[in-house]
Design a protein that fits this description.
Belongs to the oxoprolinase family. There is one protein chain. The protein is α+β, with helices and mostly antiparallel strands. The strands form 12 sheets. Strands 18-15-14-21-22-33-32-29 form an 8-stranded mixed sheet, sandwiched between helices. The chain has a 7-stranded antiparallel sheet with strand order 35-34-38-37-36-39-40, sandwiched between helices. Strand 16 (338-344) and strand 17 form a beta hairpin. The N and C termini lie far apart (67 Å).
Amino acid sequence: MGSVSGEKLRFCIDRGGTFTDVYAEIPGHSDGRVLKLLSVDPSNYDDAPIEGIRRILEEYTGQKIPRTVKIPTDKIEWIRMGTTVATNALLERKGERIALCVTRGFKDLLQIGDQSRPHIFDLSAAKPSNLYEQVIEVDERVELVLDEEKGNGEKSGSFVKGVSGELVRVVKCLDEESLKPLLKGLLEKGISCLAVVLMHSYTYPYHEMAVEKLAMSLGFRHVSSSSALTPMVRAVPRGLTASVDAYLTPVVKEYLSGFISRFDEGLARVNVLFMQSDGGLAPESRFSGHKAVLSGPAGGVVGYSQTLFRLETEKPLIGFDMGGTSTDVSRYAGSYEQVLETKIAGAIIQAPQLDINTVAAGGGSKLKFQFGAFRVGPESVGAHPGPVCYRKGGELAVTDANLILGYVVPDYFPAIFGPKEDQPLDVEATREEYKKLAEQINSYRKSQDSSAKDMTVEEIALGFVNVANETMCRPIRQLTEMKGHETRNHALACFGGAGPQHACAIARSLGMTEVLIHRFCGILSAYGMGLADVVEEAQVPYAAVYGSESVVEASRREAILLNQVKQKLQEQGFREENIKAETYLNLRYEGTDTAIMVKRRIAEDGSGSDYAEEFEKLFQQEYGFKLQNRNILVCDVRVRGIGVANILKPQTLEPASGSPKIEGHYKVFFGNGWHDTPLFKLENLGYGHVIPGPAIIMNGSSTVIVEPKCKAIITKYGNIKIEMESSVNTVKVAEKVADVVQLSIFNHRFMGIAEQMGRTLQRTSISTNIKERLDFSCALFGPDGGLVANAPHVPVHLGAMSSTVRWQLEYWGDKLNEGDVLVTNHPCAGGSHLPDITVITPVFNNGKLVFFVASRGHHAEIGGVTPGSMPPFSKSIWEEGAAIKAFKLVEKGIFQEEGIIKLLKFPDAVEHSQNIPGTRRLQDNLSDLRAQVAANQRGITLIKELIEQYGLETVQAYMTYVQLNAEEAVREMLKAVAARISSESTRLGERNSITIEEEDCMDDGSVIHLKLTIDSNKGEASFDFSGTSPEVYGNWNAPEAVTAAAVIYCLRCLVDVDIPLNQGCLAPVKIHVPAGSFLSPSDKAAVVGGNVLTSQRITDVVLTAFQACACSQGCMNNLTFGDNTFGYYETIGGGSGAGPTWDGTSGVQCHMTNTRMTDPEIFEQRYPVFLHKFGLRENSGGAGHRKGGNGLVREIEFRRPVVVSILSERRVHAPRGLKGGANGACGANYLITKDKRRIYLGGKNTVEMQAGEILQILTPGGGGWGSLSSSLGSFTVFKNCFPGNFDHQV
């Protein structure tokens, strides 16, 4: 590497969770010194980075430096370090004790978040724990001024211009006197760190500043103000960021203080910097918790990007950092790809960060054989006990598979195992465990096909590695293709301990032809510290329409921010010529939430590009279209100041002379058997050496596997470039039964197709419902319409689209042609309710129909008697909007715009005399329909790639096999459930069948009756809904597809294994719904509430029959409001039901929905509303041994007249408890008039609300589980009765 001036050492350190890597530049040495230490080794040293510096200084000076004395600094020029201290504290929840300070009415805001649950099939609906211990509410409030108020001279005197340029009114000044005793109370409890988030503080930060000043004056050690950290609109992510910062910064500061204290007084003259999550360095004084979470991984991105791009390849790079428990994936194409918001360990952080995606697959991922398929992860064996080969009694992991195959060479792996930590990896124990697994696998295969050949240990190990590779390929495809890039056009930049073992296989699967492995791949995160620049960021909010005036104002703000960051860099010793600046505007189209941080491009003549043009280009690239005649809005102004360091310089090697030296030969198992494989050491190879595969190259502690049909070239910088002879190979799989390895791979591939369709739909749609609330689903079907894979987006869509596809297949018959696209939304044609429009595309191969792809999206407007197409009082389908049974949206490649416009604008009204309004948002409908067509086309492209790789016969065979695999999983679950129920009761009937009957009521008294019969021998179940009430004169009738969706959702939750969602889940199941019941209504019936209300009740009945959990809130609480200028729609969460081992979760979307809630600040910014309260409804969850989750309270004041519609349930019949648990509370809806009258609205109503009136919605709680005896005293018990008969807890 580069020379070291002044005879001083330079240190780059990455303190990871398991190992600490040190790279040091030493005077007089062309190569750096590399050292790897255990991060935690208390018997030998207190701190790994200090120990690494001490050891290298001892080597260099020849002088002993006892661990008890301070490290001398006279020989140190600089230290750069990344650390996982913050990451580990967040993951392990070992941060500082903190409290949260919020605006009154929003005590539970961060706990609720966007109200979605992380895992839709987890019945506990568990969410990550809060970082704060206590919450204090502040009496203060600011509101934004409406456009119509701005010209009001009488009121204008009370307006204040916010930082963003928006006008605000201080409704209530901060009450410091009432706040002071609350803060003192926190100090008395030992809490001295505070996170502060107040409504609209992004533009009016003065109340937060006052809280911080008061808290610090009282003795708080640290205060994180959301407006100071991330002055961006959206209270939830801003508040979560403040919480993370308050939680982590004291921990980080304590560690850094301890680190710095270990050096002598000369450290003040040493440049000490720390890596931030954005890839830039910062001094200790500016290194804070919320910017430290990706400190280590960021070093790796800097490392590969600055040493490989343009130096080793012109291709954009995919960073592939494979560690023990996870793999980090990133992309670099000339500039760092950053995101402004990410979720880490369940916490949202809103700050500039490198776009690093983490996959739960690594060397420690557990290997399992389950339901006839190989499964890798997501669980990890951890560092202790670790894989079997670690000699600690661990379980089989990916590392064991690599050891069996020869990808890990024990002779070159540290002998640090066994009781005395002096033993090598245990190959024999690993092989014995694989033999046991082989017996299980081969026994299963013989049971499926008596002629099946036994799989060898090596074939099984290779199978697991292949499945692990496919697991890691899925997120790489998503990372690139969701942004409009072709994965195959990239080179794979591979680093990390395990990455080079998998590099060739990963690249081949992705269609890449080039792999790059850095010479320091094992310590690249540490090396990257020395390549990073010092970064200072500044950002302010600015709300304006993009135009000549706003550009001038934005430039003025840029100039101010630029001076600020330059001054900070100059204070750190950077001269003007070493400072670069990047300026950004955060822009979005009006009416969308999708903002893009647009960097200003500077031409060679010094002129800057137009931000709007750059924005449109980026939007087109990422989303595939432009929005015509739509204003572009400015959201934020940002400046990134860069102090260019130019520290480490790559050194070129001399051309090699002679042949590469072979260190030995080892047996390595590839797909076609064992190969006698030469092993080389990178340190003994020179520039220009070419090594054909198969080969092993030892790169320090990392093993590089060069597969057959590949060749490794040593570059002039000492790195390894592997060229693939060909891209994806065609694979033929011909067996009577499914190959257990290929079964897992095809599961991944089919699900990957559905997921990528979903990402395409989200990218190309324009409506908030689809793009932001994620109210859509995408799926892949066989030629018979049977479901193959359904990406789990919205549960109420699961399995339901199969009925739709089959209805269309029967309707069109042989009239389907290549280039046709079908559209439908009618309930009698397999639909759910009219707003859910399904677009179906047949897939042809050589003229033969081979698959279908389909996407279903909720369109916010489809016509009907009320805006938003969710009328509470509809009695017939025609009142709910445009109903389409069958139409070719695209016919032989031509978009039928005129025909679809006619269907949407002029709903069929043959059976009534009224003129029912058509859609009020035609252009949005057309745009989203085109997005659905594009999503389907993406699916077709991926299916055809799969057919090209494997052949049609194989792909269709595995289409069937994955369905059989899901069927087997459900059968095993049903057998287990039958065994459990029969052991708990005497319900065993004839021929080993178990029969259970359950029912529940809708609020009007309509009964859902279920007779569930389970055959314990065959693993089959019958869901008989005979006894269910007839079709209702209302809109909570539910088409049969909704019942099927509810059943398949419940089955998937009960299986508790990550099986694909397909038709196989329903194969062991018979569903009987009596015709004419409100679960199988006529084609004239109103159904808009069936999808969103009745579906939840069906789910409760099914799960109660299985005794799985108590009832959840049983409702989606659908709220729509608007006038002739706008419309708004949301669903509101509630309490989930408790289960045998869990309390219910509070304030969460339950079961059949998982859509997001609009952030409170966005809600008030874009609509004429004032949100008084959004929080948990205390004591609304049912009491019991396990308590049901609490519902929510939402109080909205309307600031101008609007029409409000509420469509809700569980206002009469409460969510039931189970096993002796108490019922959850009923919900309630109230109108609070300006004279403070509180009027009960019932469960379903439409109201013309006046300015100043308040809508109060109390959502139901979840039922409790188990006996009340231990917990009755602390909970309010709610009666199962009409809401007027008891006191609602608010």
